[in-house]
Amino acid sequence: MLIPTLKENPADAEIKSHQLLVRAGYIRQIASGVYSYLPLGKRVLRKVEEIVREEMDKAGAHELMMSALQPAELWKESGRWNTYGSELMRLHDRHEREFALGATHEEVITSLVRDSIKSYKRLPLLVYQIQNKFRDEKRPRFGLLRGREFLMKDAYSFNESFESLDETYDQMFTAYSNVFSRCGLDFRAVIADSGQMGGKDTHEFMVLSEVGEDVIAYSDTSDYAANIEMAPVVMDYPSSNETPKELSKAATPEQKTMQEVADYLGHDLDKGLKSIMFKVDEQFVMVVTRGDHETNDVKLKNFYDADIVELATEEETRQLLGTGFGSLGPINVPEEVEVVADRAVEKLINVTCGANEEGYHYTNVNPSRDFNVKAYADLRFIKEGDPSPDGQGIIQFARGIEVGHVFKLGTFYAENMNASYLDAQGKSQTMVMGSYGIGVSRTVAAIVEQYHDESGITWPSHIAPYQVHLLSLNPKKEDQQRLADELYEQLQAAGIEVLYDDRKERAGVKFADSDLFGIPLRITVGKRASEGIVEVKERQTGKQDERNQSEIVDTVRQWFDN
User: What is the pTM of this model?
Assistant: First the structure.
C-alpha cells in the first residue's frame, strides 16, 4: 500500500493538520497549493463525502455533476467576470475562446435551470455536487486549508419566493449542522458576509481552532456569534464635556504610525483620528476612525453597496492629497474625495489628525467644526469588551476555520441571467436562489486540527480510514503470522474495516506509524499469539487490554456501537 511516512515535519508545514497529513502519508504536494490524496487520504475524504451525501439527500437535494470548465460568457452574463478578482483561473482554448476553471458554479447551474425549468410546478428545486474547485490563491498555505485546488460540495436552490427560500435555507442550515456534528467537530454557525457571491443573509460554519484565519465575535452570555467582519457595533458614544480649542498645527517629524504620533504629542490613542484612503469602485473615499479603532472594509463595501473596495495606492494618495499615508487627514481634502467617518468620531472634541503635509498634524481638531463628513456610519471592527449586538453580554473573540457557508442569493443571478418561470396565473416571475457550500478537504484538515496529540492523528471513529489497525509484530514467527492472518479474515468477514500491517519492520516502527495514522483501535499480535491472546488499544485514550481471539469481533463491534 502507498503510505510513505516521514519522521520529520515538512519544512513548509506550519500547522498540525498539514504536518501530520503529510507525515502520515495521507497527502503529498505536487505544486504550491495542489495536493494528491494517497490511499489513506482518499478513504478519509470518502468518509466525509458520504456524511455530506447522506445529509444532503435527507434534505431533499439531488446530486449531479457540472463541468469544471466554464465558458466566460456565463460569467459575463452574471456580471462577475470582471468583479470576481484574480483568484478566478482564466484560460483560452485553441480558438481563443475564454474559459474559467470553476471556483464556484452559480452561473453554470443558473443557465441549466433557466433552460430546463419553466413552471412553478417544478419548484422548489435543490441540487448539489461534490467536485474539485480551483482558485488562484495569492499565497497558498496551511496545507488543505488554503489551496489552489480543493474538494467542495456546492448546492443550489431555486424557489418561487423569498418565503420558500427561507424554508430551504433553514433545511440546509440544519443539514450543515448535522454534517459537522457527525464529523465530531466543535463548531459555531456565525453571521457572515456574502462577499463575491452576492445576495444577502448568510452564515459561515466555523470550526474553533487557534490556527483559524477568521475571527469570531461572540457574546459571553448568549448564542450570538458573527464573523468579525459582520458584527455591528452598537455602542452609545457619550458627548465630551471639553471646551473646543483653536485649531493648530504641530510638527511631527518622522512620526508615521498612530501610536508614534500619540506618544510624540502626549495624548492617548483614542484622542487621534485615523484616516485611510480607499478606492470604492471608481470613487476615492477617505474613512476616518478613532485612533484605537480599525476600519472594516466589508462594512465600507456594504455602506456603498459597492462591487470592489481596495486600498488606494500611496501614489494615488500623493496625487490627490500631496502627502503619503503617515500624514493623512480629513481637513481641506479635494472635492473628488468623499469623507465618511465611523460613529465614534462624531462627538470627539480636541483631537489630532494628519495635516496632509509631510511631518505635520493638526491638534485641537473638532469634527463638527473643522471638516465635512458625507455620513457617519458603523465602519469599524468590533472589539473585545464591546457590548454584544443582541444586547446580551459583552463580545469575546475566538479563531475559526471556515468549513461551510450558506447564502440567500435572492434574485441576483436569476435577474442577470434571465432565469424565470410561469406562476399559477401564467405570469413570468424571477426565480429566487440560494447557494450552499462545504469545503470537504478543508473539513478533513479541520478535523485533524481538533483531533491530534504529540504522536499523531486521533481520528473520530467514523471518519478514520479504517476502524482497526492490525499489527503482526514478528511475521517470521509462525504462531504470530497464523493468528494475525486468521484475525484479518475474521474482521473482514464481519464487515469491519481493517488495515493489516504485516511488514518486515521493527515493532517500534510499526507502533510509531500506528500512532501517526490515528486509526481508532489497534490490535497487536505479539508474544502471546500461541495462547490466542492479543492486545487491544484505543488510539484516543491510550487505554489497552488483552483479549482472546474469540472475543475480538464482538469487542470491536461493541466499541464502535458505544
Answer: 0.86
